[in-house]
Design a protein that fits this description.
0% strand, mainly alpha, 19 helices
């Protein structure tokens, strides 16, 4: 363990007790607000130096520097005392940080569009900026995720507003009412199967997520005696916001937006696909005798306690506790012992996932070990079971102990 890892981890893990508990990450959460402003820093550096490399600053940080910092600083396993959680939940500071992130996303998108419209750029510079904005606006989904789980009307509309920047407003319904219900079951298009590449997963997840969201809203509105095309449709509401936003950007900044906006939007969607892909890879809830699935537990999600990436993602990577307690705010999320754990934070795992063989070499044995070698407890890509039986030398619970010992 490095000195930097020791110092940071030890300082975070001190627990003075519930009565006097102080969140030692309290002021570090501002990084989750500042991270969406990275494209503005990128463009400032281009303006000051003239170096094209700065167009790719977000890409370099996201896929390079953040994983390295995760490796350097390690993991934080500390939890707030449970008796301190009500106080943390009532502290408006944490909620205000999520609100502040929304205008930062809009500022980065608008300034980037202005830059594209007013500065000469070659193809590589254009693509670097578009993909950078895709990463940033993909993380708008993370802000929308945090806000969308809240019960207050203001928070829920802020979620819709930030989801509009990346054109993925149906996430508001799909995630809360669909994914959280069906996670780690074959019914969930947002749960990946062991042996399924991220590319195959995306073809199932992206259309499946929209269909599920639309169907859920259609059913809800039908029960209320209203048309699915009603403005009360919470899938349509953020979609309309996206149309208005993108139309305004096109009107102000010209036809280049017809290329720039779809690229950043598609790569933003890819960030969510990447998150969904790694968060529940191969995990499966047990089907009960009545045909229903067991209640979801923390072990039905892959967890990550890596410090740096959690600080820029509002603790998204403590995904196990989030699924067990969806309304719990980011500052209160806990780690548990013996959870399925990712070997790196999300940015590093997103990069690895783009190389299926590399990803499977890292994750497949972890899935099998977690299932104690029982392939019946793993969600496996159709047609791949025989391959895994041969690879791990098991067929199901009958030979579970064999693989667990490997």
């Amino acid at each position: 363990m490095s000195m930097s890892e020791n110092v940071l981890t030890e300082s975070l893990q001190r627990d003075p007790g519930a009565e006097n508990y102080v969140d030692r990450k309290r002021h570090l959460w501002i990084l989750s607000v500042l991270w969406p402003a990275t494209p503005l820093i990128s463009l400032y550096l281009v303006a000051q130096t003239g170096w094209s490399i700065w167009y790719g600053l977000v890409l370099i940080l996201w896929y390079g520097a953040v994983p390295l910092l995760d490796a350097m600083f390690g993991e934080d396993f500390s939890n707030p005392p449970e008796s301190a959680v009500p106080r943390l939940e009532q502290d408006r500071y944490y909620r205000v940080l999520t609100y502040l992130t929304v205008p930062v996303h809009y500022a980065s998108l608008i300034v980037s569009c202005w830059w594209v419209a007013t500065h000469p750029m070659n193809v590589f510079e254009f693509l670097a900026l578009a993909l950078s904005m895709g990463i940033i606006n993909g993380l708008a989904l993370n802000t929308g995720h945090e806000l969308g789980h809240k019960k207050e009307t203001f928070d829920r509309w802020m979620a819709k507003l930030v989801l509009a920047v990346v054109g993925y407003g149906h996430f508001f319904i799909e995630h809360n009412k669909g994914h959280h219900r069906d996670v780690a079951t074959p019914m969930d298009p947002a749960t990946s199967r062991m042996g399924e590449s991220i590319y195959a997963f995306s073809l199932r997840e992206i259309p499946g997520a929209f269909k599920r969201a639309w169907d859920l809203e259609e059913q809800r509105l039908s029960r209320c005696g209203k048309s699915v095309w009603s403005l009360e449709n919470e899938v349509l509401q953020p979609m309309i916001l996206t149309v208005v936003l993108y139309a305004a950007l096109l009107a102000f900044f010209g036809p280049l937006m017809l290329i720039f906006l779809p690229i950043q939007m598609a790569f933003g969607w890819w960030q969510l696909t990447s998150a969904n892909y790694i968060e529940h890879y191969g995990l499966l809830r047990k089907k009960m005798s009545d045909g229903r699935y067991e209640r979801q537990q923390p072990h039905h999600s892959w967890n990550s306690n890596h410090i740096m990436s959690n600080l820029i993602l509002f603790h998204l990577q403590r995904h196990s506790d989030h699924h067990a307690h969806p309304t719990r705010s980011y500052q209160s999320l806990r780690d548990f012992k013996d959870l399925p754990s990712l070997p790196s934070g999300y940015p590093g795992m997103f990069l690895v996932a783009m190389f299926p063989s590399w990803f499977r070499s890292i994750m497949d044995h972890r899935v099998v070990e977690w299932a104690k070698g029982d392939l019946d407890k793993i969600q496996i890509q159709p047609g791949k079971r025989e391959y895994y039986e041969h690879k791990f030398g098991v067929t199901g619970h009958q030979q579970a102990n064999t693989a667990a010992a490997k």
